[in-house]
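Lay summary

Proteins are chains of building blocks that fold into shapes. Our project writes down both the chain and a compact code for its shape. Here are two examples, one after the other.
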Amino acid sequence: MHISEGFLPLTHAAAWTLASAPFLAHGISKLNGARDNRYLLAASAGYLFTLTALKLPSVAGSSSHPTGVALGTVLAGPAVMPALSLIVLLFQALLTAHGGLTTLGANVFALGVAGPWTTWLLWRLAARFGLGDRPAIALATAIGSLATYACTSLQLALAHPDPSGGVAGAFLKFAAVFSVTQFPVAVIESLFTIAVVRAIVNSGGVRIAGLEAWAQR
């Protein structure tokens, strides 16, 4: 979902940067206040970087890959994810030519806001309705991953509306292209995230609200 340099008009890039700014400011403050959980934050950032680095070329200067946002959302909450996303996206834009600097705000919004908050809301909602831990996280991870790409599709559609179908038509076209790879990727990512969360919980010394019952299962 990394939109490459130059694929958004500067006005759009600036607008998405402004939209991301309050979430990012809050995320940085939460990150500074969560230093006691630095190992979980480091694991979340490493997971995020590794999965988003597995890029496949996709539509309109973007890329397709797992999002990696679910682990950090489960371990540390969605509020810190914009800050972690900024670190990962800035590193990738500068050193791996993945994403871009002018599109950084748009990419932070998709990866650090849309994906994590969708994941968190679905996880808590599924848990409230009695869905088991694993199914709840699997569902939230998969839908959160798809939400990230839906956000990117909207960003691209707003910047490049279809001549006949407008923004809605462009959104459907971008989302359709992404769905070819992202549906199977989202399923695989959900299973992998469950395995990683279980491994972290079972490693000892880590308490995650609502997941203590996973220990030694």
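And here is the second example, written the same way.
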Amino acid sequence: MTLATLRQSGVPAQGRPEAVALVRRKPHVCFVAPYAWPVLSRDPNIQVVGGAEVQQCILARLFAANGYRVSMISFDYGQPSPALVDGVTVYKSFRERAGIPVFRFLHPRLTTMWRVLREVDADVYYQRSSAMWTGVIAEFCRRYGKRAIYAGASDRDFDIGQEQIVLFRDRWLYRRGLARVDRIIAQNPYQLESCRRNHKRDAVLIPSCYELPKDAKPGNGDRVLWVGTIHGYKRPEIFLELAERLPERRFVMIGGPSIGGERLKPGYYEAIRDRAARLPNLEFTGFLPLAEVEPWFDRARLLVNTSVYEGMPNVFLQAWARGVPTVATVDVGAPVNTVFAQAPQGAAKVEALLSNTALWTQASSDSLAYFERNHSSAEVLARYARLLDELVP
């Protein structure tokens, strides 16, 4: 029954079940997240745990739990397709390295992705982190009357020339996509400003979100924790220097090698791992699946981040949700984050928080309160709901 037929029937709107169903229907959202399957499926055998992927999986589960029809497009990791995980229907595209170099840009990459985008037939397509797919999705949505959302994942995503994209062709597609998507989402005020300055577009500020696992048991931990990919821009060597400067404190480093980082800087991961092994007060775990990383936050006293740049690291949210303060070389715009520039200064700030109970207690309380005000799932869901209502009335 169409709306026109319902109007002609003479039945009051509030008495028409079909009309109510039509009015209340929430849009079908598809997350185009090539590397997300290992995170969403919790497969411990695939060593991929990127920040953008973690955030998209959090959002996908959140949307599905709140009545949205949710799909996801991922690389082919050998999983069935479609596959249903936590209310999210996952379609596989192609294996990451399938095809003949140069020619594989067209097939299987473009041909397969385009086919799967059509197969999913969502109302809104959501893609996060700078990549050629931004341009592809924007074009697809223009042609088929869909809506496209791009979400920034790093502070460099909107800085022209600083995007983490190697090929000129892919950078061109990404920038073209930014100009054509229906909405752009920024994580923090810096991204808002750089998007407006460099791309002449206004973004919507929606912070990242996080929910504590049901089995989380944060307590009075004593570890100084570092979690991330062992990549040059993450600067794990600074964390190792903190451990060297504070031999009486217990440090834990969690992270596997970066594929891109290993290609550009061979032996980097092994050098960090071997240096860590020589420190008696530091435990180096290597790569861990997300589910195995979570309990380490329950045992943490502080989280340290040593990156050159970030957006809003998921590890900050994992820490703040437990009342674990952060000490970092990046300023993410959060007043509860203690910032340092060099290792000696960082060691002093870490020691001050560890040795002063009153100072740590206040920082812990402030971190938890800040998280609940800005990064709770309820707050972020409300912002996305308003955005989706605008895009798909």
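What can we say about the second shape? The two ends are 19 Å apart (CA to CA).
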